[in-house]
Design a protein that fits this description.
heterodimer, A: about 350 residues, alpha+beta, 2 domains, about 15% helix, B: mainly beta, 30-stranded parallel beta sheet, 3-stranded antiparallel beta sheet
Chain lengths: ~350, ~450
Amino acid sequence: MRAIVFLIGITACAAEPWVPQSGRPPELLSEMNLISYQDGELTYPDEMIHYTLGTPLFSDYTDKDRAIYLPEGAQMAFDDYDTFDLPVGSAVIKTFLMPADLRDPEQGRQIIETRLMIHSTTGWQNWPYVWDEEGRDARLRVQGGTQRLSFIDRQGESHAFTYLVPQRNQCQECHELKGDDGRNFIALIGPRSRNLDLVHPQGDHQLEAMHSLGLLDHLPQASERPRPAIDWEAFIAEGLEGRPYEEIEIAARDYLDVNCAHCHNPRGVSGISSQLFLNWDNTDEFRLGKCKRPGSAGHGSGGLTYDIVPGDHTQSILHFRVATTDPGAMMPQLGRTLAHTEAADLIAAWIDGMEPVDCR
Amino acid sequence: MRQLLSLSLPAGLLIACGGAPEGFENIHCGEVEYGNCIEVGLDADLIEVVNGLTDDTAVILPRGNFEFDNQVTIRGANNIALYGQGMNETRLDFAPTEVQANGVDVVSDDFLIEGLEIIDAVTDGLRIEDSTGVTIRRVRTTWRAEASPENGAYGIYPVKVRQVLIEDSEAFNASDAGIYVGQCIEAVVRNNVARTNVAGLEIENTQYADVYGNVVEDNTGGLVVFDLPGNPIVGRDVYVHDNIVRNNNRPNFAPGGIVGQIPSGTGTFAMASRRVEITNNTYANNNTVDLAVISGLAVQSTASNWAIESDQIIGDIDGLQLDEGEGGAVLNYRSSEVYIHGNSHSGSGTRPDNSSVSDRPLGFLIAVAYAGPDPVDTVLYDTISESAFDREDPAGNSNDNHICVAADEGVTFSSLNLPELAEATVPNKNMTYRPEPPFTPFDCDGFREGPIVRPTFAD
């Protein structure tokens, strides 16, 4: 009996969850007993760790639900910077659901896809599963695919758009890092100390609960841990109006860290060539984008010259690429078709609050 | 054990005794030396196939058109070949793609792509990143709309690749560069055609490049060599020879970016580059200028932004005599050791691009300075970071950067002293140093640290 603290309700799965340690996993997601979906709700077996993140990656306003599977008796190794180290045989599972109406959860939601990352004997492997229209089961589709989806946003406006389920090989565009030995490897992105360091909306403080249940090898005191990422939903609910600039700055850096720095960090295989590093702890202002001309942004520059023109978001490519929906220009390159307007407003406020500089 | 898979082809079409199945007449699995080979029928899902690849596999496409709503992504397997039946036979059409995606997107060592066309990719046509040992042969990248700013950025785009060969390929209609070799170490780019792009062929932050036999025409700018600031690879040893660079007079249609600053009518420039030899090329009818040597400070004037920390450096900087920044960082803004000789020139510099003083200040400045009946000199040097300049006296000019320009037939040269020229109320070419042959002190031969080093992997 393990991480039930994070779960609401009673779990339904009697069968033991499992994942293969090598090779292609089963064609049907249900065969691994990791997750079940009924009446619009996801449930996990007791053995699994249901968790949430303080600042999530924006994914076209979908709801995302996450859980970790650890082999019997296994532990995660705490890390104060990188994602936790999960032993071979572990899995991380993330499911995407599109709410019908962001203003009203009662309107239900459509289950779309579940991404399964398995720590196999040859490293982490990504496997995309696509749910059938009735939400009965999900089938492995290495080729991914596109779907037309629609929803009503918080302002009551309807949107219809093309949603991309990434093909298996596209997963690596975000999940690939360069190791100290120069070799590339697949890595987790989400489960890091600073983004798990919060009270789960339906349970306990996540890190403390994981530790007390013996699922984390150790846990430093809160004062010894890196600063927790902001609680994005709470931050946005309060709005930007009247906030001190320090809070804007922290929120903007946290947002960029989660939404951009999986590539735009000095080890990100897809981001190194840009030399634009948006990880929260980067202190190199030029490589943060200030007065920096992009390497090869092409279309993505939006006719602008510098990544960030301090004091003027309208002249800053960074803001343009976060705000635009032009498929040849927008960032991140994967996982977004719609504009994340709340984030674009935050980035604008962050840039506008910087000490103005004439980049020329 | 060799595995032969034929996907979605009726068995009756497989011809025994080594013959080619229908649609695979130019190449089929019987002709390639890979451990595994997959012939992919027109009704099969190529994206599904490439997401299940194992090492040492050839994927062969038949004659015909494939349409995609997402990119073809190759990862996690090495020694992969993707063959079509030819640039005019097999087409990968990305026009139906509505999400952000490239055409063919690859990270894979020992990768070969040959004999196909990639059309209407949303971003880049063929992007190959962070790989070693890449061959691109008889591949065309293009977009249906001619020279449109709506087109994708790059056509053929290897970046951070060691040992890349691009040959017998074609790149058309890219809104940035047709062929863009970026941050590569050892590149051979030969016998390609780049046409109707903003930049035809670019060599960026690249070491040991041999660029020859290419036809680069009807772009905004032709064949260019440069470093961008803050990049861990310092460009060096770029050998540009026996190319045709002509009629690069397309109005600049870039939607923005550095490439948007290239004046229409530019043949070649070397910017923030060193150990570049430009020889035996044919330059003709480039309306602004055939050749220009430019400092990186002309586009990024803050020298400290060119700093590369010594522990970040990738590749070989021995013998480059780079400037030093704070804390032992190197600075690569300077253009030095550029050797220009034995090229032919005709009909260029007659109508420099004066279309935008804000977007293309260099073109505008040249247009104003060279107002009048005489064409722009065939070789221009911005004179940035020189210790001495005199518009009349050869002895009053330094050549600290060791820029060597041979006084071949048809070559005229000007050292612009750009910072002062740009400040002049009415810039005029008479403010520049325009020596008679032999262009003293720019009449040197070769490089101070020995001849150019060319890659030999593709010999």
